[in-house]
From TrEMBL, chain B:
Chain ranges of the DhaK domain: 7-328
One GO cellular component term: cytosol
Spans traversing the lipid bilayer: none
Alphabetical list of Pfam families matching this protein: Dak1
Protein name: Dihydroxyacetone kinase-like protein
Keywords, comma-separated and alphabetical: Kinase, Transferase
EC number(s) stated in the UniProt entry for this protein: 2.7.1.-
Record has Ribosomal protein as a keyword: no
Any GO BP: glycerol catabolic process
InterPro entries documented for this protein: DhaK_1, DhaK_dom, Dihydroxyacetone_Kinase
Organism: Streptosporangium sandarakinum
Length: 283, 330
């Protein structure tokens, strides 16, 4: 178990270039550039709304579609690790279930991408609810759906809007799963990630930096579930025997936030990125 | 680990095709992933819909038919079905008298059936729900997801199914289902772990001299690991757990259930010990089932479920039933 855990730590929120390219295939080299240069001026080009290509809000549907694609790729790459974590304290299907769900998301997006971030996240949520099953389907599905609802029908949103949307997503998970921090669930990764993001927004960090901080906090939160005793979900049946294992839901949440960082870094990256997206916008 | 499958991804669908070929009195909707009676809904009869992860066969699809379920929604292996399946099944079997969802108490099942119930209401299908939670191995309910739904699910589906067949209204069918659940307890023991097709390796390692006590039905480890013992001692561990939680008294319905990889002869060895235990406690072994009814793929092991019968429950248990896995009196 030490191997995969170490790998997760390496690829975490710090935006380590090797880790990113490891899980993201063709996009890797591109992200490596962006991740290494999160503080350079280039990151403001597309995302801070200062004359960016995506309108006044900054984060557009293309960015959120990229997030979904990054999640699908990361889940595929980490499928066996998630399943191994779930074998220890669950029923050995978390990787397979999320892979099935996000593969369906990728297919749905390929069939037609919604125009707004809100509609896009709603599509992601509804697809997960329809395809995943188990506890993670409704929980992640609800999170994306609530986040999408919070974003309304704006064609592009700000980082502060994203922060609020993720808060709505977390509230959805908490409501449905009645979990609080310390129960050894996905909340233990998402709640600290959100706190880090909120703080970064308040400090005026640029999107790649802010989401990078969130990814780092999510990973630390997932690692912090190892000594916890589960109080929710199937792992709770094990009682004290659940101690000593990373929660698979927290691990997949860390992966989802890391994917957001990868997407933001990718779209905030080299100038070539804007030309790649250009054909999708209005002529 | 060798598996008699075409591929891990297609095992549920492939098995549904087999079920359809074997049982013409079932309607298998492969597209919407549910199994219903081919005869369709009966006007004025409450519909019974259950479902859960696959890998527990014959539960639930094997209990669809006269006197028991109207439809079952199989999920992926050990994964609850999605709301769309439950909505499609509920709409298909509603005869205008509403639908009872029989849900095992696992987080995923409760969430997906809960979402489906809300959406069914939007579509004009009245839904009531019974959550089965009979597994005494989970004690600390405040600090867990609550007791798991295991063997009592078979009793609930049979007895509530008989009540629905007899024309009881939805509230009454739910009351009977809840009564069966509240009067039933289960405890499971594993001699080996099971292997899911997707993972290909056992879900946990168990030595030749070890057993897991207090297992669920999803291949998860139990509450404690213990030394392997003979059938008499293992049955006593299980029966003591039941008796401690709910004193065994009066007429008792007992199921000794195989987990999928246990030879029937060993289940009868266990059942002899169960019968002796009940006699020792002065309880009457009134009705029984011995065999594979709610399994965990290829796991070796058994569970015992006991239900304290009332005259009404006994009458409903004895009522005719005709399903692939349970049939008598018709």
């Amino acid at each position: 178990m030490a191997g995969p855990d170490d790998r997760a730590r390496d690829t975490g929120g710090t935006g380590n270039a090797d880790g990113m390219s490891d899980t993201n295939g063709a996009g890797g080299a591109h992200e490596a550039n962006a991740a290494n240069g999160t503080t350079r001026a280039g990151t403001t080009r597309g995302l801070n709304g200062a004359g960016g290509t995506t309108g006044t809000g900054g984060l557009d549907a293309a960015l959120f579609a990229a997030w979904a694609e990054e999640i699908a790729a990361a889940v595929r790459a980490d499928r066996d690790r998630l399943t191994a974590l779930d074998s220890a304290i669950g029923d050995a299907d978390h990787g397979a279930n999320l892979d099935r769900g996000f593969t369906a998301v990728a297919e749905a997006l390929a069939g037609g991408r919604p125009d707004t971030p809100g509609a896009l996240l709603s599509l992601v949520g509804n697809t997960l609810i329809r395809k995943v099953g188990g506890a993670s389907g409704p929980l992640y599905g609800m999170a994306f759906r609530e986040a999408g609802k919070a974003l309304g029908d704006a064609p592009a949103v700000s980082l502060a809007d994203l922060d609020e949307a993720l808060a709505a997503g977390l509230a959805g998970i908490r409501k449905l799963g009645s979990a609080t921090e310390g129960d050894k669930t996905m909340v233990d990764a998402l709640a600290p990630a959100l706190r880090a993001l909120t703080q970064a927004v308040q400090e005026g960090q640029d999107p790649a930096e802010a989401v990078g901080a969130a990814a780092e906090a999510a990973l630390a939160g997932a690692q912090a579930t190892i000594p916890m005793q589960a109080r929710k979900g199937r792992a709770s049946y094990l009682g004290p025997r659940s101690v000593g294992h990373e929660d698979p839901g927290a691990a997949s949440t860390a992966l989802i936030v890391r994917a957001l960082h990868a997407a933001v870094s990718r779209t905030a990256g080299a100038p070539g990125e804007t030309s790649r997206r250009a054909p999708e916008g209005p002529a | 680990m060798k598996k008699l499958i075409n591929s891990a991804d297609s095992v549920v669908t492939d098995a549904l095709r087999g079920l359809a070929a074997a049982h013409p009195d079932l309607r298998v909707d492969v597209k919407n992933q549910f199994v219903a009676r081919a005869s369709g809904p009966r006007r004025g009869k409450v519909g019974l819909v259950s479902g859960g992860g696959s890998g527990h066969e014959p539960l639930h699809a094997g209990f669809v038919g006269y006197g028991m379920l109207d439809a079952a929604c199989p999920g992926e292996i050990f994964t609850s079905p999605v709301p769309d399946q439950v909505i499609a099944a509920s709409s298909a079997v509603d005869g205008g008298a509403g639908v009872l969802h029989v849900v095992k108490n696992y987080t995923g099942d409760v969430l997906n059936f809960g979402m489906a119930a809300e959406l069914c209401a939007d579509e004009g299908v009245e839904v009531a729900t019974v959550v089965v939670d009979d597994d005494v191995a989970v004690r600390d309910s405040l600090y867990t997801a609550g007791r798991r739904g295991t063997g009592a699910t078979v009793f609930v589906e049979k007895i509530a199914g008989a009540a629905a067949e007899a024309g009881a209204p939805l509230a009454e069918v739910r009351r009977v289902a809840e009564e069966v659940n509240s009067r039933s307890r289960s405890f499971g023991v594993a001699l080996s772990a099971c292997t899911t097709p997707a993972a290909g390796v056992p879900t946990f390692e168990l030595g030749d001299d070890e057993v897991e006590l207090g297992i669920g039905i999803h291949g998860e480890p139990g509450r404690t690991r213990s030394a392997m013992r003979g059938a008499r001692e293992l049955v006593r561990v299980a029966m003591d757990a039941l008796h401690e939680d709910m004193p065994l008294d009066g007429d008792v319905l007992v199921m000794v259930n195989g987990m999928g990889g246990t030879p029937l002869i060993e289940l009868y060895v266990a059942f002899a010990e169960v019968a002796a235990y009940l006699e020792e406690k002065g309880a009457t072994l009134s009705r029984n089932l011995v065999g594979d009814y709610i399994t965990s793929l290829d796991m070796q092991g058994f569970s015992v479920t006991a239900c304290l019968l009332t005259p009404e429950l006994t009458r409903l248990w004895d009522a005719p039933v005709q399903t692939p896995a349970l049939r008598w009196g018709r």
